[in-house]
Structures
1.
Amino acid sequence: MDFSWSPEDVAFGQELEAFLDKELPPFLEEWADDEAEASRGVTGAMEKRRAWQRKLNEGRWAAPLWPQEWGGRDATVSQQVLYTQIMARYRTPGIFNANGIVQIGPSIIAWGTDEQKARWLPGILDASEHWCQGFSEPQAGSDLANLRTTALLSEDGTHYVVNGQKTWTSTAQIAKWGLFLFRTDPGAIGRGAKHEGITAFVVDMESPGIEVRPIREITGDSMFCEVFFHDVRVPVGDRLGDEGLGWMVSMGALGKERVGSAGQAISMAQDLRRLLQTAKAENPEALRDPLVRERVARLHTQIEYTRLLIARALSKVLKGEKGWPEVPLAKLQWGYVSLWLAELALDVLGPTGTILKGAPGAIDGGVWARNYVWQRYTTIGAGPTEVQKNIIADRALKLER
Ligand SMILES: Cc1cc2nc3c(=O)[nH]c(=O)nc-3n(C[C@H](O)[C@H](O)[C@H](O)COP(=O)(O)OP(=O)(O)OC[C@H]3O[C@@H](n4cnc5c(N)ncnc54)[C@H](O)[C@@H]3O)c2cc1C
């Protein structure tokens, strides 16, 4: 495996680093007030994210994967990996429209009409409109094709009428638009063809009949929501792709192979180093415990394995092969390793490690305490651990059912 980057990739990376060297320090200084950020809640943190995405967009660094004509850079797979790694190394803030840039925008680029692209892409990119993605329902998560929310064409053929419920829709409470999957053929499940009859729509979240209820999470925040639809009218012109193509719209993004988890190995390595520094200052005795030392060494090794696994996936993709089974394996690794790291943190920091952000005495702004509960997410989001294992057992190991 050749670990070196091409001259074009090196130039791409250097341009990004020069941008970050210039723009990131003043930005972080301007938004340094952690206490104020804690009190601003989900929408407060979003203002910082909006400002950072706008800054990135000024340098055309908000959506490098998008085509140039829509404000991107047509980044190649290796540039995409490099981008993720550099952003992780610089510990850049999150962006305002993460879903919009990574998932929704590419779906609109792939499936939207020219009119739809012109209407929606600029607002995603310049962070003037927030977007959410509503796929999951109470009975349709891992088994997404079981979704039941219906969108039925009106008699005059001008709009669809939507009824049903979505759940876990991140940041729906601040979204202007959402990409949703609805069932336009309610008979498909009964026919045993549940992947059929699903259609993608862009929904104006201010439409009458939409009720958004934030869900309070284990972290204390309300990042995601239930979304209820009561006879909501969605214009025919807001359908993305033809009727029945929703499954493909939701799966396809620009037709480019993705290499997942590219930045996570770097972020986790940085988090481990930061944790050890904090522990040395706050609770040095814990680091003399041989069992703790073994856990640290094991974590370090696992993080390095993850990095190499991702490099192997990239190497395959660059040769025109699928990043398989490395990509689902890396997702599995990420789920485990980030949980081990979160648990190690509370064990080495002792009781003060549990103090949450905003409270007096919180270590590193309470990040480790929050991380301990937040990291449960990595075993669920982007495909739960058990489902990843099923995929690997089925398709890579070809185990019998
Ligand atoms: C932080 C966060 C943000 C999210 N944001 C969004 C969003 O913006 N939009 C959106 O649409 N969704 C969102 N989701 C939802 C996410 O996509 C679902 O949680 C995920 O698809 C799992 O579905 P579920 O929660 O219904 O769990 P289920 O699918 O019901 O799974 C429950 C448990 O059963 C296990 N299980 C399920 N099927 C199998 C099987 N076949 N074999 C073995 N075990 C199985 C799972 O591994 C899991 O442990 C978010 C989730 C999280 C945690």
2.
Amino acid sequence: MPYQGEIANKASHSDIVRNPDVAAFLKGCTYLREPSAEEAQTISARFQVIPPTDGTELPNYVIAVDGSFYEASITERLPSTRIGFIKIGAVLIDMAQYKSLRVGPFVDPFRVAELQRNNSPLTFAVPSANIRTNGKASVRDSFRAAVDEQLVGPRTRFNPEDGRSSLRTTLFHLAARRAGPLATGDSTRLRLHACPNPECSNGPIELMDVPEQQFCPYCNTEVYPSDCLRVWEEVTDFQSNATALSRLMLVIEHMLPMHYLRFLLENSPQVLGSTAFFVDGPLAIFGNGAWLHGGILRYFAEVNAQLEQRGLPRIIMIGLQKTGQVVDHIKLIDRYVQPGRIFAIDDDFRYQFILMGGREPAENGFGSGTYYGQDFIYKTPSGRIFCMALPYPVASKTEFGESFKTTKTQLSHYVELPRALALIDHFESDLYENAVIPIALAHRYTAISLQPGGKVLDLLTRRALAQIGT
Ligand SMILES: [Zn+2]
């Protein structure tokens, strides 16, 4: 994600706050503010000493995923005719190679520049305002077709010849494991809640993981497996589609690590056991595709169970937030928190100190329909503070009912926590800002292109085989 929340014109912003009418209005508002001395004490008391990280083995590989999107007019003369682009950067950091880039405490900038040239992100192009493709009836239908075509296309495949190595097949794996009646329990089938044709809307519709075009059994209109993401519902024919683009970017950012997980599990589980993933933002999916979070959580738990059976360590997956309410909050409390402390944010705390917008009617607590990971505030031994997330240590939130709210905040349930903290500590020394560790690192200092289907995964697999051989 691009950096957000920066105020373009600071002078005009302070003018607004100085305006007496605005100042009077703000007096009656509840908003995030500096904690009082008493509150600061309550807050800092919630932090615990971190578990020991000495002697923790770091992973051999780190994969960092970050996305951005933009909507462009096709020419200056047609500003309202637009195409959307989503770029997802996925970089692989070989920890041994990363160490070799160092010259004393610094990273050799020339060698880094050389490596960065090899990074080629995955780009999706979709029709936006006032553009239709291939005789489709609307922008929305064109968007649906384009998304599906690119998700199943050769660029997302680990093996260009095999459609089932595509990102779309990974979507089948996740959708099969979703919560509720739309789950199929079979990774070759998924269900759409309803037909996307507004004149039909019958459902659910079951689709197979096959290359052929599939049709609604009620109205015979074209339907696509990726319709289940429901991003198309936010596409408009004539307005900006920034919301739909940001939703699509978000689901791909979170599906991509699962895609690598699937590939590595099938091809070299021992490499998977020594790989860590960094994603940008909280471990959560918002919008109509939010259901995907449940499929990710279950898939992640299943992969971990398989690694455990083979005596391999759990996967480290870390969501790191650079913006948002929690990040705003940690800036306010930073000075009250001692180094080497961590706090798993619980619901009561979140609603008391961070979220001023009001409690949401959530059955299983905060983020019940969106989050698959727990937020932590972590202050490193050297004093940098981060908002990081780890996947919930369960396959499903509903299995725990009410007690999930307390289960999710117990540090002892996060077996991989010491390794995750050690990894953050390892990377922090090279950073200029607190909130941007892995992603900035990925962009700035890395590494090898990790286009799905690219040579890097072959390379990983070969290295894994070589390791077994020794
Ligand atoms: Zn239909």
